[in-house]
Amino acid sequence: MNVDTPGGPLTAGPVTYALTGAGGGFARTLLAQSLLMPDLHPAVLCDLDPAAVVALCTELGYDPATLTLVTDPDGLRAARAAGRTAVVAGTELLADAAYDILVEATGSPAAGFRAARDALAGGHHVAMVSKEVDSVAGVALDRLARRHGVVYTPAAGDQPANLIEWYDRLRTLGLEIVAIGKSGEYDLVFDPATGEVSQLDQTLSAPALAGLLALGDDVPATLAARARAVAPLKRAAAADYCEMAVVAAGTGLVPDREDLHYPVARVAELADVYALREHGGVLGGPGAIDVFSVLRLPEEASFAGGVFAVVRTHDPVTWRTLAQKGHVVSRDGRYACLYLPYHLMGVETPLTLLAAVRDGVAAGAAAPARHAVLAGRAARDLAAGTVLAMGGHHHEIDGVAPVLLPAAEAPADTAPFYLAAHARLVRDVPAGALITLADIDGYDPGLLAAWTAG
Q: Is the distance from CB of 151 to CB of 123 less than 8 angstroms?
């Protein structure tokens, strides 16, 4: 069943979606997948460059006659009444559109928040791809959705939804979860023949890794040596911290340290790495979220942005049997790592869209709550008047290092990282200091209200 008009009655038919950021890489994967699914249809595509969206859809195989460039509400209603996909430049037109669920993928904290808020208020479900929005306003948006009888959910195909659902699955099975997390976006691929390690398009001479491929008896010492060997490569990304903030909201787990551990680890080692310290691992306590950098050889399969959970074992015979079948069990038998080694982006997102519209189901069993705060520390001395520009593939903020704080430890005036994006400093901030709300102005007031309400 689906929603025919904003706030309208349920009727049978294909699930229809509006997509913001429709010219981006994620959007391409969802649009390509939608062509294979007769029960899923793009109703409205929104992007600052609508002509490029039409070109993209045509390249993918959509019939150009079914795509209509629209600039006003009347044109949008006419396009939808004719069964065409409307392509628009501004999110403000979405309020007049007929569709079931908004897929918010702008990556813009302010614009994405407004699009999601207006969609929910208009009776539409929302699948949130823009983790930047979710990390600031996700709790408030979920509450708004519940008031309007619709679903707010992270989207399958991105690590937050995949990891939250994996966590819920394992908890349902009664397993005691010690840690959950994901890999960084790019593997570290070491070639013993050359002594070089590659991360995407970067290559570094790191012959020391040849002697560090085995974990060794002292796990922290091996991890520290690996980190030194690849130190020139930037492995941490704001996107990782942001995704873990969303996961914290959906699971209640929090970081073990504010800068995350980021161990350089092979997949088969994860149960040993994410053991408690008294058992030789890196964790100060159970219930942690974290990110690791995959270390692999050229011929080994990639973890591909996958997700993992480390659990305590129970019956020794059961876990010896599972280890014999190739599952990752720690050397002392206390822990096991269960993982999904893939990241399918929009190829998998239709599962979320269909579940939200037809079944009223979100990704994640629990309502999100603020369990961790994605904040920023000045990476250098920052002068009053500095604009905290956000940019790049991972939406970093120049001069600000992301940190993830348990909510109970975050000062009350901490500025969320993506509220500070594009804001201006009103006073000097020394290196190492947390950015606070009193340090900035020029942020979106609606986003601040959502953060405060959350």
A: no
Query: pTM (2 decimals)?
Result: 0.94
Distance of alpha carbon 121 from alpha carbon 95, whole angstroms: 9
Angle at 55 between CA 82 and CA 85, to 5 degrees: 20
Beta bridge partners of 425: 440
Mutual angle of helices 350-359 and 25-34, in 10-degree steps: 70
**If you search the block for the tokens 């808020």, which residue do you land on?**
117
For residue 416, what are the contacts with CB-CB under 8 A and spacing of at least 6?
A: 135, 136, 373, 374, 375, 451
**Spatial separation of the C-alpha atoms in residues 91 and 422, rounded to whole Å:** 20
pLDDT digit string, tens, across residues 67-86? 999 999 999 999 999 999 99
Strand order in the sheet with 396-397: 372-378, 400-406, 396-397, 390-391
Q: Give the model confidence (pLDDT) of 285-315 as tens digits.
A: 999 999 999 999 999 999 988 999 999 999 9
Query: Contact, 109 vs 103, CB < 8 A?
Result: no
Contact 62, 87 (CB under 8 A): no
